[in-house]
């Protein structure tokens, strides 16, 4: 039997719908974007395009599909990360997780549109020995990173 036949059992990714509420570092931030939901969603979920508008992402590689179990590789703030998509609800939610330099991260994004304004909410948890050793410093760094990300997403979407 050929190794690539459909008889080979496929591992299903573990769905993650919340961050680790017991993690030493948790950050939650939100913004509003005056742009259509489809534009904001498409901009944010074009993972391979992040480095074109997010100055904190040096590179991002993603071949798809935009579905649970798909992985992407990216470099941000000196961290070389491989993340795995855990949940994708088109136009509403996307979640991923992955380790980087001793940090285990879970990142969730939610999108909601009312009267042409999109609220983008993101929350991320970090755990691991590295995080336990310096939670205050890492929380501050994560909060700044996510705030920058949202600011740049907002600017990019509103200027299109």
Q: Please give the order of strands in the largest beta sheet.
A: 1-7-6-5-4-3-2
Tally of alpha and pi helices = 4
Q: What is the mean predicted local confidence, pLDDT?
A: 92
The count of strands amounts to: 7
Quickly give the structural class.
alpha+beta
Features:
160 residues; globular; disordered N terminus
Explain the overall architecture.
The protein has a seven-stranded antiparallel β-sheet. It is built from four helices and seven strands; from the N terminus they run βααββββββαα. It has 160 residues and is α+β, with helices and mostly antiparallel strands. A hairpin with a 2-residue loop joins β6 (103-114) and β7 (117-127). α1 (37-45) packs across α4 (135-158). The model is unreliable at 1-11 (pLDDT under 50). The chain is 26% helix and 39% strand.
